[in-house]
Structures are given as structure tokens and as C-alpha cells.
Amino acid sequence: MGRERDREVRVASERRRGAAAGPRTLAEELRTRSDEELAALLRARSDLLSPVPGDLTALATRAGTRASVVRALERLDRFALQTAEALAVAADPCSYETLLGLMAGDDRAEPPAPHVVRELPRAVRTLRAQALVWGGDDRLHLVRTAREVLAPPPPGATGTSPTGLGPTVAEAAAGMSPGRFQEIITTAGLPTTHDSVTAVESLTALFRDRARMAALLAEAPPESGEILARLVWGPPYGTVPAQPSPPVRWLTARGLLLPTAPGTVVLPREVALHLRGGRAHRTPEPVPPAVAVAAEHRPRIVDATAAGQALTALGTIEDLLKAWENGGPAVLRAGGLSVRDLKRAAITLDTDEPTAAFWLELAYAAGLLASDGEADERFAPTPAYDEWLRSPAEARWATLVAAWLPATRTAGPVGGVDPKGRALSALGPGLDRTPAPAVRHRVLHLLAALPEGAAPDHSAVLARLRWEHGGAAHAQPSAGGVHAQPGTGGAHGQAGTGGAVMSAGPGAGGRSAYGTAGARTRGAAFADRAAAARVSGTGGTTGEVGDVPAPPPDDLRSRLARWMLKEAELLGITGRGALSAHGRALLAPAAPQTAADGFGKLPGTEQEAPHATAERGQVGDRPSASGAAGPRARGAASDDRASTDRASADRVFGAGGATGVVGDTVPVPPPQPPFSDSGARAAAVFAAAPTEPPSDGEAVVAGARAAAVLAPLLPPPLDHILLQADLTAVAPGPLERPLAQMLGVLAEVESKGGATVYRFTPGSVRRALDAGQTAADLHAFLARHSRTPVPQPLSYLIDDVARKHGHLRVGAAFAYVRCDDEALLAEILADRRSSGLRLRRLAPTVLAAQTTPDLMLERLREMGYAPAAESAEGDVLVARADAHRTPPRAAPAPVQSGPPVPDATLLGAAVKAIRAGDRAATAVTRPTTPAAAGAPASSPGSGGLPRTTSAETLATMQAAALTSSAVWIGYVNADGAASQRVIAPVRVEGGFVTAYDHTADEVRTFPLHRITGVAELADDPT
Asked: Hey, which end of the chain has fewer CB within 10 Å, N or C?
């Protein structure tokens, strides 16, 4: 107890000293955090736990590595990322007041935006909790790696800053001659200096002085001001001809534009910040965009529509696997399904190819479909498919949904190419997108936060997801094109008198918003790089005006969200675009229905979420908080729904809007300005739902919970059909399985929908006879299950086919045909269509053929006959094909992009181990004794092991055991791994020391010969 009390006192003392003087490093700042704060950091950045750091110094070092920092930046919301970007362009350290000026502006004439002032503390807390920022409010430090990633690149380097700012005056003037720079400060009205460093500081001070800078710009020609206005929001680089125009010469002569290369100039950061009013971003986004409602439907209609689609989903999967039951398509050598087979599957399912690919991937994810592993490898149903068929409808739907929720494979990329240019095929490799489960989970929670029956505007959902993950801002307008000098003409902005042309310079390269395009999403980074290049100013049109807004990037999460919205509709999770009752049941029981009910804290922290206000205020009598589309006409909505049935995911949801909006649509009021009072009250809540998607086990539980809600909505299976005189039968609903199976053999499916129409044909009746049924069996079956009398044409059809069936017998010789009617055999011999069979008469009633019995049967049936196969004994063979099944196969496991989220037990153990290791690494020892003075000096913080003689080690251990004090030792285990530990010896005997190991938090026994040395810990000065 005494040792524990001393340790707590020492830790408290360190925290008091750190709070008074301020931490000097990130490791010192981490030492002042509580165990709960460290656990929150490790939960938010789980990559820091692989493996568990030895101490807090190792944790701080790992938290500053580039891969870990980039991963943490990707998970920030947009305003927190904008805050980090502002810190990257500020001096290090930066005060909170300076940061507020960069985010809200430092123009004294205008008060800062209240939303920015209110939300900036939350953003700073988020960055601190993620160990991206450390230090007090007067000395905020952005970790060095994050600064390197987010700061504007130096002149000559490729890439642009997310803020659109350029290098500082000191960076831009690094290669300039001292004489030229003295001319610049003289022209700017500054006194000459004796060295370049002082000259740079003098010009920088001028640009940062608002009064003097305003006076200097007041003297500028009007054309010069327009040029600056085009460069101020970035890209800051421009090209000039050999003979620039007078406005450009005026700017370059005073350092407002500095040369970086022949023909290239840049707008210094200090000048741009003055012109921007001190703001680092054109449009800060402190609150997330609200998820606007496109239409509102009655909840009962939504649930009924979704339930009907759930039944359709079950029928589609069953039809697909039934078609492949007797041997599916071959597996490509590279894996997956060929384009031709995918088209055939789409025709079988009466849908388009992207939708067919989704059903294939869903069956594969549910473990119902796999490759058989044979030499001639083919796709076939698995044994789990038979069990699935025997389950109730709601249980079968739950199986599909439980496989869909955590699956990382997605059918959206099918038909595209991977980064190496290889085609992506259905059921093939390369379809895993690790963010897919998290996107599905988050979108479902966004839909659940809306009122029941409310269908969201899909573009608003995508905008919300981009905000939550720091996606490129919609309002970075001038980053999309090339900037021309005003007043110029021509397609390339050429001045009429040979003036200068200002265009995007070499700095407008292809670096992504996170510094390295390859460090972003792992699955489809090549598409994200193209989107980032469009936003960052690559490939614009010369002469394009800088006020044209850039289109929102089509990043991976946006594509996944579009695909997810379509898939949820196909599965019956949503109906008419709104989340159904069983769809809501997929979420945790405590999932909030409105933003105000449960969206108050950021995950892993004690921070308040930005404006935890209700999202329900977007429909009915309350105005929408988004600038999305307003009401939609009923006719147009119906046309939209009809036109999207065959469209791919990108076409369906590319422009937003709800599908299936029909007569019960409630118009949505016009939106309010995004930062109005009503808009702030209705602002969407960030971090509303759990950030991690459900595990496989949790998905199964969620599916069962949703199935219980879905079951009352599904119609009971029927045991009857309605026969009609035109040789058709109508099933007015889902049929019982034996009835459906028999009817599927006896008739062909003509159409599907709310009711299924079957058509009886000679071929379908013959198929039933081949399966072992007799004419009497078929008549009895129809009479038993039809609510209407059996039509006479159908009875005649069955009797006529049965009378001809089996008249001809085909066996194996190669093959032979046997018939008691000699005239019929003569007719077959005389038929030209039988020439390919190479028939010859062996006897008056027997024909032999040089082909197989199967081909013989097929050809004779094509000729209009109804032969039957017979065995070697002369018995009729029942043509009941055995269903082909693969060996038992497990469903594909989701692919993780990083280490899994640690649970509370692992976090507690990791924090305890890190604390113990840090105590051992930072323990203060007493000065070495004179006898050991010749030994190499070392201390816990130096990383070296203590060195003492065997006698000194034994004496020190015995003394520590008598006084119950702790000592610092170096220890080498049996594998030769060296470590340092803080132990409290209890007993020393027989060459071993039994001690309490503070590092491992347990009692252990150490061989004395493996201890390299020992040192006594200094007394705590407190």
C-alpha cells in the first residue's frame, strides 16, 4: 500500500509540474493524461496498439509516424481537419487566439462567425484526444508529421495545400539574390538592411501589419488588385511571360508576387492571409450539413413496400441458385465469373448486370454459393443452401442481411478495373472495400435519425458522410481551374497588348489532401487520386474564372454510400427510400431516433458533439436546414422510379433524390440558409451513432431482431393456385415450398410480381413426366391445389403428351432407339434432321446411333418426339437430375483495413502495461557508488541497462528486500532480449530473487545471473 501511495504521489507531482511549466514534448503531455484519456486515444487510434508500446515515449513516437498520422487525419470530421490545416500554416507553437483568427478571421470590423467560435474548442479537443495536437491553449503544437502532410509545400515541390495558401516570404525568397531582395524592400518603402535575413523579416512584418499593408495596396493599380483576387484562394502559383504587363511588374517589384522559377511567381502566404481577412479557409464548416428529406410517406406503406421487396429478394436468390443447381458457370482462371456468364445470370433474373452482380455477391457472402473445387471448377450452391431453403421466409431474409451488414466485398466495382488495369469480375478477387461495413452502418443510422416514413435526399447523405470524414469541401471554389489576368481576351486569357498570362503553375500538382494519394483508402485509391486532383486544381482550362465551384469529389465512401442505398432498397431494408420498421430493428435497440435523443458525445472522448439538435425538423411544418432540392412533382417522381429500375448504382443515385416517390408524397418546404438560426437548430449531429460497424455475431443478432419485426408483414404461404383456360396458372402470393417446387417443374414462369403467372407447355409437361410423374399424378395434383376447375385444354395437353411420352426408348449402345411401331422408326430414318445421328436399322424395331444417349434424347425432342431413356434392363429411367452441391464452404471473412477496435479488457491491460513500462523508463536512480564509478553510466531514461558487479547486485537486492524499497534493474531473458524493470524484492535466496514487478504488475522470480545491474531509486522530492 505504501508503494502504491508513493507512486500516486509521484504521478500527481509530475502532473502538477507539467501543468505549471507546460509539456515540452508529446510524451510529457501524454504522461499528464489519465488512464481513461489514454484508453480513449488507443481506442480511437487502434493502430497504436500493434504491438503494445513499451512506454509513453514509444507511444508518442508511434503516434507521430506518417502512416499513423495519415490514418488519424482521414478519420477527422471536416471542421477538425480544417483546424489542423490552419495550425499547419501557423507558426509553431500557435496560441488559441491566433488559431481563432485563422478560422474565423481577424478583421476587427466584422465579428467572427458564431458557429466557428462555438465549435472551435470542440475541434481542438478532438485533435488533442487524437494526439495530433498537444500543449496548452497558449502554446498549441501540431505534431510534426501532420504539419508536413498538411502544410503548403515549399517552392518547386509538387502539390498544393488544402488551404490554397502558398509558401511564406522566407520560403519563397530562399533562392533570391540579396541585391534583388534589397530592391524589393526599397520599392515597398522599407529601409535597406545589411543582410537578407533582416530584409526578409522587415518585408514579412510589413505584410502582417494591416494598416501599412492597406496603405500599400491602396497605391496598387486596379488591374493588380484583380490579379491578387484571382490568386488569393489558390492555387497561389502563376506563370508570367518574359515581358509582364505593368500591373504584374508593380506586384513583383514590391514583393506581393515573388518569383519561384523562370516564368513562375507565387503569392506569399502573408499577403494571401491579409487579403483573406486572416482566414485560412474560404468557407469554414463548423457544423455538419443536415440530412434533408426529399419526400415523406406513410410508415405503413413504407413497411409494406419493403416487405414485398424482401420477398422478391428471397425469390431472386432462389431463382439464381436453382438455375445453377445442376452445374453453374465455370470459374475463370484468375477467379470470378466471366462477363458472358454474368449477362446470362442477368437474363435469368430479368435484371441488369450490376444488380445481378449484387445478388451473386450476396449469395456468396451468405455462404449459399461457392466454387466446387473440382478440376473443371464451377460455381454451385453449397449444402447451406438446402438448409436455407427449409427455413421460414423471415429467417432466410435475416441470413442475407446478416451477411450483407459486415461484408467488405461489394458488387459496385464489378465491370471496372483495379489499379493495375485488370478487370474486376463478379465473385472474383479485388472487390473488398474495407470501409463498406462502416458506411452501411453509418448510413442506416442517418436514415434512422429521420422521422418514420421520411426518405432522405441522397446528395445530402453523401455530403454528410464527406463532412464526417473530412472529405474535400464543396466550397473550395477557385481550386478547380486556372486563373487568368482580368481584362484579357482569347481562349487562353492572352492580353490584347501582349500582357501577362496568370495560370496555375507547377505547384498545382497532384498531391492529395492528405499529402500522399497512395496513403488514403487502400481499395480504390486510384479513383480517389483522380478526384483529389480535380479538386486540387489539376487539369483546368486556361482562362477559367476562379469563382466557378468545383464539383464534389466522387470519393470511395460516396460511391459506397450510393451502392448501399440501392442495395438496401433491393433487400427490402428501405421502402421508397425510407427506412422500414424492420430496417430500424437492425440497429441497436438504444439507437436514437432523433439527434437530440442520443447524439451528445464524441466517441472515445467527453466532448460535446456539435449542435446535438433534432434532425426531425426537416419535414412537416419545420423548414429544412440544407440547400438540397425542394418538392418534387408526383409525375416526375413516378418517372424517376420507373427509369431507375434498370439503372446501375452510379446512375440511380448519382444526382441524389429518392426513388419510388408516389402519390403519398408530402412536399418539403424550401430550405433555409445553412447558418441561419433555424438551420443551426436543425443541424445534423456528428458522431451520432456508434462509429464501428457490427461484428459477424452482432449482425446475426441484429438480423434475428429485424426478422421478428418483418415476420408479421410477410403474407403466409398459400396452398392453392388459380388455373385459367389459356393454359396458365396464377399464384396470388408466395406458395408453400412443395407446391412451388412441383409447379416449377410442371410449368414455366411467365411473369413475376405481386402474383406469379405460370404457363403450361408440352415441354414443361414432358419435364414433369421425365421426373417420374404420371398423367394421373398430374391431374390429381392440379385438382387438389386449384381453386378453379381444371380447364379442359390443360387436361388434353397432359393426356396428349403422356400418350406420346415413352413411345420411343433410347439406351446405350453407343445409343439405340427401340420402338414397337416400325413405321415411326422409318419416319425417323427418313427425316433429314436425323442425319447427324448416323442412324441405322439393326432390327425392325431397333435403330442404332453413333452418339450418346443424352444427345440422342435431345435431338429427338427437338424433332418433336417424346422419347424416354431406358436402363440396360429395359426399365424407364426417371430423368431426375441430381442437384450439384459444393463441399461445405465457409462464407468469406470480411477484410480488415487495420487492427480491430480493442475492447475494454484489452485497453485496460494495455494502459496498465504502458504505465508500468513508463515508470521503469523514467524512474530516477541515486548516483552510482564510488565502487561502481568506473562502470558505464546509464539511467532509465537513457535506454541503457544498469551495470553492477554480482556482489553489488546481491547486496543491493538483499538491502531492498529488508527495507521493502523498489530498485531499477536490467534483465536479459532466456531468448537474449534485454529489458529494464522496476521491482520490489521480497525474498533473495538460492540465486533467485522473488519480487513484485511493477512493469508487469505481478510477482515474478528472477535468476540473479540474468540481472545485468541494479540501482536504487531516488527518493521522491515530494
From this structure: N
